Amino acid sequence: MTLRVVDLSEDTLYPVVAVPLQGSLVLYAELRREKGLKKPLLKLTIKEQGSEDVLDSAEVPYDRVDKLMQPRYASFRHLLKKGLGDITLVEFQGFLKTRVVRELVEKYEKYREEKKREREERLRKLEEEYREELEEIRKSPIKHILEVVDFYHVGDEAAKYQLIGVISSRFLPKDYRLHAVLQGPSSVGKNNLVNAFRKITPKKWWFSVTRLTPRALDYMPRSLGRTILYIQEYEGMREAAYSARITISEGELTVSYVTRDPKTGEMKTVNRKILGTPVVITTTTRISIDEDMETRTLFINLDESPEQTKKVIEHIKRLETSIEEKEKKRELAKKAKVLKLFFRTLKKYDVIIPEELLDGIEIPLTVRARRDFKKIVNFIKAYAVLHQHTREKISVNGVEYIVASREDLELVEKYVLPSIRIQTQNLTEKHIKALAVVESLKTVTARELAEEMSISYRYAKKLLDDLAEKGLLIVDTKSKPYKYSLSLNTHSITSYTGENNE
After folding, report:
1. If you ran DSSP here, which 8-state letter would residue 262 be given?
2. Coil vs helix vs strand at 231
3. Can you give the pTM of this predicted structure?
4. Three-class SS of residue 18?
5. Cα distance between residue 476 and residue 484, in whole Å
6. Which residues, including other chains, have CB under 8 Å from residue 127's CB and lie 6 or more apart?
7. What is the pLDDT of residues 3-53, one digit of tens each?
8. Per-residue b/e over 431-455, b at no fewer than 16 CB within 10 Å?
9. Whether 340 contacts 334, CB under 8 Å
10. Distance of alpha carbon 193 from alpha carbon 182, whole angstroms
11. Which residues contact 168 (CB under 8 A, 6 or more apart)?
């Protein structure tokens, strides 16, 4: 029997060839590239001639056809032997390498170049079609972003500015990516706020999951670089928190595991790398999370006040009773598409920050400040790269940099720095509000705190117990209900908020 290759690429989206086997069997070979993987995969499928039914299949990296000898492909090899007749599997592997793969790679490179040209042409046409709208957005991107986001999520201004910075950090080198945990009780709108930003950003940016098992990140089938990894609840990632921390800090995750060598049959250790640093966003109802994860993220607190609740209810009423609001929703849906196009046209840059912009920034000099000051730097860079069309650029040794402006610093000072000053002391804004209530009332019960802060009793109890665990409150367990008061270790509230950092 002589093996031959029949080109079928003109009839398919991907490069495909057919190899007729004995009897009525046909082997189809094609190259496919999964998003994020550096190497395309060689997919081998055996069918009856003239039939669309798949008898068996195997998928291996295109340059590792020897993996077909692995135990998991035993049934595929058994069927393949029937079609090969007197040709051995070793001879067939050689045929795959020298004829099939070589021909597919040549076709695949041409296919990729053509697809790239098509994408660039589509993007160019879209940019030309929406040229005026894009020019307006480029002058003031945050203004236009908020115009849409404000419609889908009312209030929480600081949280929106913080999320804008976090999402924009995907255009920075991996060492400057930002990560966020949206914190608040159930129904406060954490996922609603994230979903508002998903409406204005390209869908392919997002990798959304509800839960990660302990080893899920270890075996992700693609690179995580520049992906926005959105875990809808922190509880769903707690088991995988270690892998997430390593991915955030190191930009790659190396997993060592033991497997059987298909050639020798002996056990061996194999290293597998998951490359890239994602932008991690998650939400939680917890008062605090794993400390190692907390120091790598920004806690974004949402407004749970009665005033905010009233705004949300009024917005729902307007949306359901006003024709004008429904028309506005349709108009904003169109603008959201242009914003997606705007984000697609942004380029990746590193950012130079003039020294004088950093000189005046002060945060409490705790050990954690070593990490938190870098977050401040990263936010300045993120706002600068978002405004790349209006920022100065300089070239050094052929590399172009954006120069951050005072406007970028002012955004950080107004919307980010207050939160980081608090978190540098291992506290959140809700901790500060609770401490202020205790300072005002001298002693407080969980029920009283819930009424003062307009939160649930259960959430108030968690806040008080967490502050007591941190040594900032004293609990009188002899009283019923328990009463909480400031401990001797607790400073004035202004010392935690940055008004007095001495």
Report:
1. T
2. strand
3. 0.77
4. strand
5. 6
6. 134, 341, 345
7. 888 877 676 667 888 899 988 899 998 887 765 556 788 899 999 988 888
8. bbbbbebbeeeeebbbebbbebbeb
9. no
10. 9
11. 382, 383, 385, 386
